[in-house]
Amino acid sequence: MAGSRKLQKEQTRERIIAAALKVYSERGFSSPTTVIADEAQVSHGSIFVHFPTVESLFLCLLDGFSQDLKSELHSLVECGNDITKLLEKHLDILIKHEAFYKRLTTEAVYLPEEAKNTSFHIQSTVSIHFLQALEKEISAGEIKHIPFHMIFNTWLGLIHYYLLNGDFFAPNESVLTRYKNTLIECFMALIK
Amino acid sequence: MAGSRKLQKEQTRERIIAAALKVYSERGFSSPTTVIADEAQVSHGSIFVHFPTVESLFLCLLDGFSQDLKSELHSLVECGNDITKLLEKHLDILIKHEAFYKRLTTEAVYLPEEAKNTSFHIQSTVSIHFLQALEKEISAGEIKHIPFHMIFNTWLGLIHYYLLNGDFFAPNESVLTRYKNTLIECFMALIK
DNA sequence: CATTACAATAAGTGCATACTCAGTGAGTTG
DNA sequence: CAACTCACTGAGTATGCACTTATTGTAATG
Fold first, then answer.
1. Is B16 in contact with B46 (CB distance < 8 Å)?
2. A133 with A111: CB under 8 angstroms?
3. Has residue B1 got a pLDDT over 50?
């Protein structure tokens, strides 16, 4: 009866994906495929049974992240459009995927074109939610008159700066967790 | 009589340095040495006559930038400690070395340890001037009560974010030149 | 002008890596 | 249970790179 073979294949695929996520997060995207194969306890060639190129493997990981972020953000819509809540949620999601997201920002230049598009798409999604929350508070007169995109870019720039220098700001620890409150407080103080 | 040989050697060295600066700025720090050799119109092996490793060549470039930035910043001390002036000067210096500095921020992770130290040293120098200018305005009550380092990190984060996404914000053009005034105005509006 | 010193060359060398492919053995099928 | 399928293997191939070295030609030296 069928099943066992397909199941095994699916499991190997998942093992490779999990291993790649771990290796890429810990050692960067230029980690050789042999390391991933070792981590997944699978032969080197097996990777290419499941993914035609390393790039396609990477895009698979990025897609998983993108979808998770999207669904998490949408779940927020229900809780009203409070901007502080949104910032908290944003950081929570990033903390959940911190190691991977950090690599995404710090190794952005070397990403293949398709990955850059996905990254851009991810930021657009965040931006849309950000705008909704901000519009409300702007019309309520709570926020300074500064172009929306500048406010958004300041926020992202700040977070990325902390991620990039995480080893210095919070060695062997999650920077975003450690500075979550500080980041939100200071940012709110700036835009009010 | 001596001279001609030494002169020639010095000139080839300078040609290699200039070529490396151009190639690294345009194509990133992982450009192969053969490209640099071609650009300098010099044989591949010549690079290793002048620099024991590619890393030492890169450190030579970084050192040149570091020294220039330092001397430019010091020249500012004379013109008083106006914060807007400082931001302008900061951007002017970065614009002068924009392509190289952009690579420095976007490829920071892959830099050798010694280069990271130099980069850190560069930011410290900027930070000191920043602090001096800020203290004056803080005590004058012009600026919000936010930890100094957060203000500085917000500024750097914003600039680096624009550099990183320069191809999108200002394709085939200097992002910093195009957004210089916007960046300064918005940042000043935020911290006041 | 014979000898030496040395900047510059270009054809290697060695290594790390992504990707291939012929073979193997366990699962599946009639 | 015999024949077949196919996930998986791992040694092999091709490529790109930093760095080496034997050689060359020219300036310096006595």
1. yes
2. no
3. no
Instruction: List pLDDT tens digits, range B33-78.
Output: 999 999 999 999 999 999 999 999 999 999 999 999 999 998 887 6
Residue A146: phi and psi, rounded to 5, are -135, 140
Please identify which residue in the block is written with the tokens 């809780």: A79
Query: What's the CATH number for B61-191?
Result: 1.10.357
Q: pTM of the predicted model, to two decimals?
A: 0.94
Quickly tell me which residue has 């990025």 as its tokens.
A62
- Distance, in Å, from the CA atom of A137 to the CA atom of A131, rounded to the nearest integer, reads 10
φ and ψ of B9, to 5 deg: -60, -45
Rounded to a whole number of angstroms, the distance from the CA of A58 to the nearest CA of chain B is: 19
Considering the domain delimited by B1-52, tell me its CATH architecture: Orthogonal Bundle (1.10)
Contact at CB, B158 and A157, closer than 8 angstroms: yes
For chain B, the structural domain boundaries read 1-52, 61-191
User: What value does the CA radius of gyration of chain A take, rounded to a whole number of Å?
Assistant: 19
Which DSSP category does B122 fall into? Answer: H
Task: Say if residue A119's pLDDT is above 80.
Answer: yes
Q: How far is residue A104's CA from residue A110's CA, in Å, rounded to a whole number?
A: 10
Distance, in Å, from the CA atom of A89 to the CA atom of A125, rounded to the nearest integer, reads: 14
Q: Gap from A29 CA to C18 C1', in Å? A: 14
How far apart CA B166 and CA A188 sit, in angstroms, is 26
Closest CA to B105 of B48, B58, B165, B55: B165
State how far residue B138 is from chain A, nearest Cα, in angstroms. Answer: 14
Computed over its alpha carbons, how large is the radius of gyration of chain B? 19
